[in-house]
Specification:
The chain is mainly alpha-helical and 219 residues long. It has helices spanning 7-33, 38-71, 79-121, 127-174, 178-218. It is 88% helix and 0% strand. The chain has a single domain (38-218), classed as Four Helix Bundle (Hemerythrin (Met), subunit A) (Up-down Bundle), CATH 1.20.120. The N and C termini lie far apart (58 Å).
């Protein structure tokens, strides 16, 4: 018996893909009518991703500070402390999701921009112009790949930190006592190290983003 998926079952997927492409094309077309082109949209989205990473940095720093205050507690009533730490975790999770969404948007418009740029190289009649544009494309792609790699590295660094936070928040939730605090103290040093690495990678990604934005402004 064949395991091939029936053609009619693919119709919704194909329709969704066409609709997405159509929406993107309509969006770009509308923006171009008011003088905003794909390169402008790319720069705007890179700025958005950079800002989201800066916000995430502050959220993770704040969460670490809250974690430190919890492990330093001597009191037996820890419910308020748990609520604060859980709120910090949720803020970090939301910030992490925002970073990922912004990076995805950067990647989408960059693919569309570079595809259009490649296609338009063939429209040149002037060979010198074509070669100059081709070199500029290679340079822009190279800078972009470095920036995206830094963004994705910072993004990946958030996952283990969030996992550690979630484990400890859950543990505290179900063990609101002095013994739980003792266990959290053992986790603090490792968590602090992970967040230091995360902050360092985000700083690198932010620097790469600023360099890319500056280069796009000059070219």
């Amino acid at each position: 018996m064949s395991s091939r998926q029936p053609l009619f079952s693919l119709v919704p997927l194909l329709f969704a893909a066409l609709l997405l492409t159509s929406c993107s094309s309509a969006y770009y077309s509308a923006m171009e009518k008011v003088g905003i082109h794909k390169r402008d949209i790319l720069v705007d989205r890179v700025e958005g991703a950079r800002d989201a990473q800066e916000e995430a940095q502050e959220e993770f720093k704040s969460a670490l500070e809250q974690f430190a205050s919890v492990v330093a507690l001597k009191e037996t009533d820890l419910k308020i402390a748990y609520d604060k730490l859980n709120a910090e975790y949720l803020d970090c999770e939301q910030a992490s999701e925002k970073v990922s969404t912004r990076i995805d948007k950067v990647e989408k418009v960059s693919e569309d921009l570079f595809e259009e740029w490649e296609d338009e190289l063939e429209l040149y009649e002037n060979q010198t112009y074509r070669e100059t544009s081709k070199r500029q494309l290679r340079k822009t792609k190279s800078r972009y790949r470095n920036m995206l790699a830094s963004m994705r590295a910072a993004e990946r660094s958030m996952a283990p930190v969030l996992e550690t936070f979630e484990d400890n928040v859950l543990y505290l939730k179900h063990n609101l006592n002095a013994q739980a605090i003792g266990s959290l103290q053992g986790e603090f040093a490792g968590l602090q190290k992970d967040i230091d690495v995360l902050i360092e990678r985000m700083n690198k990604a932010i620097q790469e983003s600023n360099a890319f934005i500056a280069q796009m402004g000059q070219s």
